[in-house]
Design brief:
Elements lengths: L1 H10 L1 H9 L3 H12 L1 H14 L1
């Protein structure tokens, strides 16, 4: 299941984080990072999925 979440995180980083942790602080941090740049959003999403 983590592989599916990582693929989703590459396409839409906030959705991947949402599937892992829900509407928590990591979700909102990822929204902000994705708005600042697509790559930081992907990196954060993959990190959250790998950590949790």
């Amino acid at each position: 299941m983590d592989l599916v979440r990582i693929i989703i995180a590459i396409i839409l980083p906030p959705v991947g984080v949402f599937l892992q942790v829900g509407f928590g602080k990591h979700f909102w941090i990822n929204i902000i990072l994705t708005l600042f740049g697509y790559i930081p959003g992907i990196v954060h999403a993959v990190w959250v999925i790998a950590k949790y």
